C-alpha cells in the first residue's frame, strides 16, 4: 500500500506544458472577449439600435419611383379621323414618381419611436447584466483555483510534516525508547495525508479545466492564477445597499423598462382607432409610340383611411396589450422582492464569512501551538506519537478551514458586487 500512494499521485497529475500565468482581471477580459452569450448580447444591442433608426424614419417623407416599358410585337389598331388603321410593332414607356408624408397617425409613429428607444435601452441593460454575470462567474472559478492551489500546498506540507514525524518515530524505535506501533501509526498518517493531497489535486485540475473551458483554452493547458484573494470588498460600500440595488441592478431596470414598453403597446394598439392621413404629390410621364403622344402631369393631395369596423379585432389587441403590461409590472414587482432578499443574504454572507475567518485563524494558531507542545513532549519522551499525529491532523484541518474561509469571504464579496448592480 505504501508503494501504491506515489503511483496514485503520479496518475492523478497530468503531464503539463509550460503553464499560462494570468490574473483574475486578465481572465475576466479574455472571457468577455470569447463568451458567445456576451457576443450575442452585443449583436442584440446593434439590432436594437438599427430598429430605433428604422422607427425614426417613419416620420419623414418617403419617395418612390416606378417605370415600365411595353413592347407590342403584334400590329395595334389606332383610331384616326374616324378610321381604324393598323400600326406596326411599337413601344410604350411610362415613368412615375410619388412622395408621401405622414400627417396624422393617431400617435402611432411617435409611440413606435418611443418603444424603439426603450427596446434600445433594454438591449444595453441586458448586455450589462450579462457582462456582470460573466465577470462574477469567472471570478468565482478563479477563486476556486486559488482555493485548491492553497489546499494542495497545505496538503503537501502536511505530508512533509507526517514524514518528519515518521523519521522521529523510527529513530526512537531504534533507540529503544518507543514501541514499533509508533512507526505504524506514522506510516498510516502519511498514507492518509497523501490520499488527501490526491483529492485536492484532482479538485484543482477540475477547477483549472472549468476555467480553461470558460476562457476557450485547451483543457490540457495548465493555468496558474497570479495574485491574491481580495482582502476587502470589490464593491464600494453603500449606505443603503438595498436601495442601491433597486436603482442599479441592470436586470431590474431592464424589466421596468419592459413594463413601460408594454404600456406604450396599449397606446400603440389604441392608435388603430384613429384615421391615418398622408399628404402626397406625384408626377407621371408616358411616351406612347402608337399614338405618337407624350403625356406628363402632376398631382397633389391628401390620402386618408379609417377602419371603422373589424369585428372587435382592435379591441382584442388593446386588451391583450393591457394584460401584457400587467404581466410585466408583476414581474418587476416580484424581481424587486427577490433583489431585496438577495442583498440581505449577500450582506449576511459577508458578515458570516468574516466571523468564520477570524474563528479559523484562531483555531489554526491554537492548533500550531498544540502541535509544537505535542512534538516537544514526544521528543522528551513524556508523550506518545498519537498525540503528535492528532495534533498534525487538527492543524491540517484548521489550515484547510482557514483557506476555505478566505475564499468564502472573497466569493461573498463577489456575490454582493453582483446583486447590488455590479459595474452599472
Short description:
With 424 residues, the chain is α+β, with helices and mostly antiparallel strands. The chain has helices spanning 4-12, 24-34, 36-56, 108-174, 181-214, 241-248, 250-270, 313-380, 385-419; strands spanning 20-23, 62-72, 76-80, 83-87, 90-104, 223-226, 276-288, 293-305.
Describe this structure in words.
It is elongated and about 145 Å long. Strand 7 and strand 8 (293-305) form a beta hairpin. Helix 2 crosses helix 4 (108-174), helix 3 (36-56) packs antiparallel against helix 4 (108-174) and helix 7 (250-270) runs antiparallel to helix 8 (313-380). Helix content is 65%, strand content 17%. The chain has helices at residues 4-12, 24-34, 36-56, 108-174, 181-214, 241-248, 250-270, 313-380, 385-419; strands spanning 20-23, 62-72, 76-80, 83-87, 90-104, 223-226, 276-288, 293-305.
